[in-house]
Design goal:
Keywords: Apoptosis, Cell adhesion, Cell junction, Cell membrane, Cytoplasm, Membrane, Transmembrane, Transmembrane helix. With 189 residues, this protein is an alpha+beta fold. It is 56% helix and 9% strand.
Length: 189
Protein backbone atom coordinates (compact mmCIF):
# COMPACT_ATOMS: atom_id res chain seq x y z
CA UNK A 1 0.00 0.00 0.00
CA UNK A 2 2.84 2.40 0.81
CA UNK A 3 4.67 1.47 -2.38
CA UNK A 4 1.84 2.65 -4.63
CA UNK A 5 0.43 5.33 -2.33
CA UNK A 6 -3.08 5.89 -1.08
CA UNK A 7 -4.01 7.63 -4.33
CA UNK A 8 -3.62 4.29 -6.03
CA UNK A 9 -7.27 3.40 -6.62
CA UNK A 10 -7.15 -0.20 -5.46
CA UNK A 11 -5.42 0.57 -2.14
CA UNK A 12 -7.18 3.75 -1.06
CA UNK A 13 -10.25 2.10 0.48
CA UNK A 14 -8.62 -0.87 2.22
CA UNK A 15 -8.60 0.66 5.72
CA UNK A 16 -12.22 1.94 5.59
CA UNK A 17 -13.24 -1.46 4.21
CA UNK A 18 -11.58 -3.22 7.15
CA UNK A 19 -13.35 -0.84 9.53
CA UNK A 20 -16.64 -1.73 7.84
CA UNK A 21 -15.93 -5.42 8.39
CA UNK A 22 -15.23 -4.63 12.05
CA UNK A 23 -18.61 -2.87 12.29
CA UNK A 24 -20.33 -5.94 10.81
CA UNK A 25 -18.57 -8.21 13.33
CA UNK A 26 -19.65 -5.86 16.13
CA UNK A 27 -23.28 -6.04 14.99
CA UNK A 28 -23.07 -9.84 14.97
CA UNK A 29 -21.64 -9.81 18.52
CA UNK A 30 -24.33 -7.42 19.79
CA UNK A 31 -27.22 -9.31 18.21
CA UNK A 32 -25.90 -12.87 18.60
CA UNK A 33 -27.32 -15.31 21.15
CA UNK A 34 -24.14 -17.34 21.29
CA UNK A 35 -22.12 -15.58 23.97
CA UNK A 36 -22.38 -18.63 26.23
CA UNK A 37 -23.75 -22.05 25.31
CA UNK A 38 -23.94 -25.49 26.86
CA UNK A 39 -21.34 -27.70 25.29
CA UNK A 40 -22.96 -31.10 25.84
CA UNK A 41 -26.41 -32.58 25.37
CA UNK A 42 -28.96 -31.81 26.64
CA UNK A 43 -28.36 -28.17 25.76
CA UNK A 44 -29.56 -26.44 28.88
CA UNK A 45 -28.05 -22.96 28.83
CA UNK A 46 -27.47 -20.19 26.31
CA UNK A 47 -26.82 -16.52 26.84
CA UNK A 48 -26.34 -13.33 24.91
CA UNK A 49 -25.02 -9.97 26.02
CA UNK A 50 -28.57 -9.05 27.00
CA UNK A 51 -30.17 -12.19 28.52
CA UNK A 52 -29.51 -15.63 29.94
CA UNK A 53 -31.81 -18.52 29.01
CA UNK A 54 -31.99 -21.99 30.49
CA UNK A 55 -34.08 -25.08 29.81
CA UNK A 56 -34.78 -27.53 32.63
CA UNK A 57 -35.01 -30.62 30.40
CA UNK A 58 -34.58 -31.69 26.78
CA UNK A 59 -38.16 -31.03 25.61
CA UNK A 60 -38.94 -28.12 27.92
CA UNK A 61 -39.36 -24.45 27.15
CA UNK A 62 -36.58 -21.91 27.50
CA UNK A 63 -36.96 -19.53 30.43
CA UNK A 64 -35.00 -16.32 30.04
CA UNK A 65 -33.94 -13.62 32.47
CA UNK A 66 -32.53 -10.26 31.51
CA UNK A 67 -28.91 -9.56 32.41
CA UNK A 68 -29.86 -5.91 32.69
CA UNK A 69 -31.19 -6.72 36.18
CA UNK A 70 -27.56 -7.08 37.27
CA UNK A 71 -25.22 -4.11 37.62
CA UNK A 72 -22.40 -6.03 35.93
CA UNK A 73 -24.73 -6.92 33.03
CA UNK A 74 -25.51 -3.25 32.47
CA UNK A 75 -21.81 -2.38 32.79
CA UNK A 76 -20.71 -5.05 30.29
CA UNK A 77 -23.39 -4.06 27.79
CA UNK A 78 -22.73 -0.34 28.19
CA UNK A 79 -18.95 -0.55 27.79
CA UNK A 80 -19.16 -2.86 24.79
CA UNK A 81 -21.85 -0.66 23.23
CA UNK A 82 -19.74 2.49 23.76
CA UNK A 83 -16.80 0.75 22.07
CA UNK A 84 -19.04 -0.25 19.18
CA UNK A 85 -20.43 3.28 18.77
CA UNK A 86 -16.90 4.69 18.71
CA UNK A 87 -16.05 2.13 16.02
CA UNK A 88 -19.01 3.30 13.93
CA UNK A 89 -17.89 6.93 14.36
CA UNK A 90 -14.36 5.96 13.24
CA UNK A 91 -15.83 4.18 10.20
CA UNK A 92 -17.75 7.32 9.20
CA UNK A 93 -14.71 9.53 9.78
CA UNK A 94 -12.50 7.19 7.73
CA UNK A 95 -14.90 7.34 4.79
CA UNK A 96 -14.85 11.14 4.99
CA UNK A 97 -11.04 11.25 5.36
CA UNK A 98 -10.34 8.99 2.40
CA UNK A 99 -13.00 10.55 0.17
CA UNK A 100 -11.25 13.93 0.25
CA UNK A 101 -8.68 14.35 -2.52
CA UNK A 102 -6.01 15.78 -0.22
CA UNK A 103 -5.52 13.56 2.80
CA UNK A 104 -5.35 15.20 6.20
CA UNK A 105 -2.82 13.03 7.98
CA UNK A 106 -3.38 14.47 11.45
CA UNK A 107 -7.09 13.68 10.99
CA UNK A 108 -6.15 10.10 10.16
CA UNK A 109 -3.96 9.87 13.28
CA UNK A 110 -6.94 11.09 15.35
CA UNK A 111 -9.04 8.24 13.96
CA UNK A 112 -6.32 5.84 15.13
CA UNK A 113 -6.41 7.30 18.63
CA UNK A 114 -10.18 7.01 18.74
CA UNK A 115 -9.88 3.36 17.66
CA UNK A 116 -7.63 2.68 20.66
CA UNK A 117 -10.24 4.24 22.96
CA UNK A 118 -12.92 2.06 21.31
CA UNK A 119 -10.75 -1.02 21.87
CA UNK A 120 -10.37 -0.19 25.57
CA UNK A 121 -14.14 0.06 26.03
CA UNK A 122 -14.78 -3.14 24.04
CA UNK A 123 -12.21 -5.11 26.01
CA UNK A 124 -13.62 -3.86 29.31
CA UNK A 125 -17.05 -5.20 28.32
CA UNK A 126 -15.57 -8.47 27.06
CA UNK A 127 -13.71 -9.02 30.34
CA UNK A 128 -16.53 -7.99 32.70
CA UNK A 129 -19.02 -10.36 31.03
CA UNK A 130 -17.36 -13.78 31.54
CA UNK A 131 -15.84 -12.98 34.93
CA UNK A 132 -19.10 -11.83 36.51
CA UNK A 133 -21.32 -14.23 34.53
CA UNK A 134 -19.46 -17.30 35.77
CA UNK A 135 -19.55 -16.10 39.40
CA UNK A 136 -23.08 -14.65 39.54
CA UNK A 137 -25.10 -17.07 37.37
CA UNK A 138 -25.35 -20.73 38.32
CA UNK A 139 -23.94 -22.86 35.52
CA UNK A 140 -24.69 -26.56 35.22
CA UNK A 141 -22.84 -28.97 32.99
CA UNK A 142 -20.07 -27.97 30.64
CA UNK A 143 -20.47 -24.50 29.16
CA UNK A 144 -18.36 -22.53 26.73
CA UNK A 145 -18.16 -18.96 25.54
CA UNK A 146 -19.19 -19.32 21.95
CA UNK A 147 -19.28 -17.74 18.50
CA UNK A 148 -20.89 -14.35 19.25
CA UNK A 149 -18.41 -13.78 22.08
CA UNK A 150 -15.64 -14.65 19.60
CA UNK A 151 -16.98 -12.03 17.17
CA UNK A 152 -16.75 -9.50 20.00
CA UNK A 153 -13.09 -10.33 20.55
CA UNK A 154 -12.44 -10.22 16.82
CA UNK A 155 -13.91 -6.71 16.73
CA UNK A 156 -11.67 -5.62 19.63
CA UNK A 157 -8.55 -7.06 17.98
CA UNK A 158 -9.43 -5.34 14.69
CA UNK A 159 -9.82 -2.03 16.56
CA UNK A 160 -6.32 -2.38 18.01
CA UNK A 161 -4.67 -3.41 14.72
CA UNK A 162 -6.43 -0.74 12.67
CA UNK A 163 -5.57 1.82 15.35
CA UNK A 164 -1.89 1.06 14.73
CA UNK A 165 -2.35 1.37 10.97
CA UNK A 166 -4.17 4.68 11.24
CA UNK A 167 -1.59 6.08 13.70
CA UNK A 168 1.45 4.94 11.70
CA UNK A 169 0.17 5.96 8.27
CA UNK A 170 1.15 9.66 8.64
CA UNK A 171 4.79 8.59 9.15
CA UNK A 172 4.85 7.65 5.46
CA UNK A 173 3.25 10.87 4.23
CA UNK A 174 6.00 11.71 1.71
CA UNK A 175 6.04 8.21 0.24
CA UNK A 176 2.25 8.15 -0.04
CA UNK A 177 2.04 11.55 -1.72
CA UNK A 178 4.95 10.75 -4.05
CA UNK A 179 7.28 13.48 -2.73
CA UNK A 180 10.31 11.18 -2.40
CA UNK A 181 12.72 10.81 -5.28
CA UNK A 182 13.40 7.21 -6.27
CA UNK A 183 16.68 5.70 -5.13
CA UNK A 184 18.57 3.71 -7.70
CA UNK A 185 21.05 1.10 -6.59
CA UNK A 186 22.83 0.93 -9.93
CA UNK A 187 26.15 2.65 -10.26
CA UNK A 188 27.93 3.09 -13.54
CA UNK A 189 31.54 1.88 -13.88
Amino acid sequence: MVKYGLDYTRCRWILPLLLGIGVIFGIIALAGRGWLESQTLPYMHRASLWESCRRPEQGGDWSCESLMNYAWGRAAAATYLVGFLLLVICFALAIIAFAIDTLRFNFIRGIGGLLFVAAVFSIMGLVIYPVKFSTEIELTGINMFSWAYGFGWTTAIMEICLGFFFCCLPNYEDQILGNVKPTYFYSSP
